[in-house]
Design goal:
Elements lengths: L1 E5 L7 H9 L10 H13 L4 E6 L4 E10 L12 H14 L5 E9 L8 H15 L4 E6 L12 H4 L12 H8 L2 E15 L1 H8 L7 E3 L8 E4 L4 E13 L1
Parallel strand pairs: 4-5
Antiparallel strand pairs: 1-2, 2-3, 3-4, 5-9, 6-9, 7-8, 8-9
Bound molecules: coenzyme A.
InterPro entries: Acyl_CoA_acyltransferase (IPR016181)
Protein name: N-acetyltransferase
Length: 244
């Protein structure tokens, strides 16, 4: 058996979680400047929306977090993606608006426990909590894990790819769809990562000798390097899903 526990009630896992789950992401993910402006307030305002999945024998298995916000239920009214959801939730909280939607922002399963259905446990449990907490709509700007093998393919095309059984080709989209989610729309610039050329060389462990467009490890799309402005720009595409 497994239990989804709010992180505030289980500080004994904090150190392990930080180490285990940080490894699951490429370094560039942590360099969205807009996210940095809001992330501390997210932790302060919404501590109840961050969880650990823990097994009976008290092993830390997975972690996830999300934010509450107002959404009108239309595709046009969706936030731009991950970063815009964060901004909308924090600003909404400060303005005192009453949220009606839970956005599942991120989930990670420890690497030696992947492929055993834990993500499904996390999604269903957090979805139930959201609904019980008055957030009847549950959406997610999902980072399709297989997209990094197809960095040149537009997200609009990638998200339509299915297997013979009709389920998405991407395993992470597939997990959500199996649990009752619907693909809503592409989020073409869900996050924006910027840095100097030296920053990008450090984050990706790749030299970028010329200006130009590069594919990068774990990149869902390409990176544009401009030596004359000493800047690298990467806009991460995600897919908006809505859970039933
Ligand atoms: C994406 C992630 C949360 C899925 O968790 P999980 O518990 O392994 O998911 P499941 O066991 O339900 O497996 C989901 C699908 O992914 C596949 N999968 C899981 N781990 C995999 C791996 N390491 N390599 C390839 N495929 C894998 C499974 O086979 C399954 O596909 P199926 O439909 O053919 O059965 C997990 O792999 C992870 O933490 N990744 C790193 C962080 C991340 O990318 N998070 C998602 C963005 S928010």
């Amino acid at each position: 058996m497994y239990e989804l526990i709010p992180v505030a009630q289980a500080p004994q896992y904090d150190e392990e979680a930080e180490q285990r789950f940080a490894e699951e992401w490429p370094e560039f993910i942590f360099h969205d400047l807009e996210v940095r402006k809001y992330i501390d307030r997210r932790q302060e305002y919404f501590p109840e929306w961050e969880f650990y999945l823990v097994s009976d024998d008290e092993r830390l298995i997975a972690g996830c977090w999300g934010v509450p916000l107002v959404w009108d239920g239309t595709v046009e009214g969706l936030p731009g993606g991950f970063t815009d959801s964060l901004v909308r939730s924090v600003v909404g909280y400060e303005e005192g608006v009453v949220p009606n939607t839970f956005v599942l922002m991120a989930a990670a399963v420890r690497s030696d426990e992947q492929g055993r259905g834990h993500a499904g446990r996390v999604i269903t449990s957090v979805r139930d909590r959201a609904v019980a907490g008055g957030l009847a709509q549950v959406i997610a700007p999902v980072r399709p894990t297989l997209k990094s093998s197809y960095p040149l393919t537009p997200i609009e095309t990638f998200m339509t790819w299915t297997r013979e059984d009709g389920l998405p080709l991407d395993p992470w989209l597939r997990t959500h769809v199996r649990l009752g989610a619907r693909l809503l729309a592409p989020a073409t610039a869900s996050q924006t990562m910027t840095g100097t050329v030296a920053d990008w060389e450090k984050w990706t462990k790749m030299p970028f000798p010329s200006s130009g467009t590069y594919t990068i490890p774990a990149g869902l799309t390409t990176l544009d390097i401009n030596h004359s402005t000493d800047q690298g720009l990467y806009k991460e595409p995600n897919v908006w899903l809505r859970h039933a």
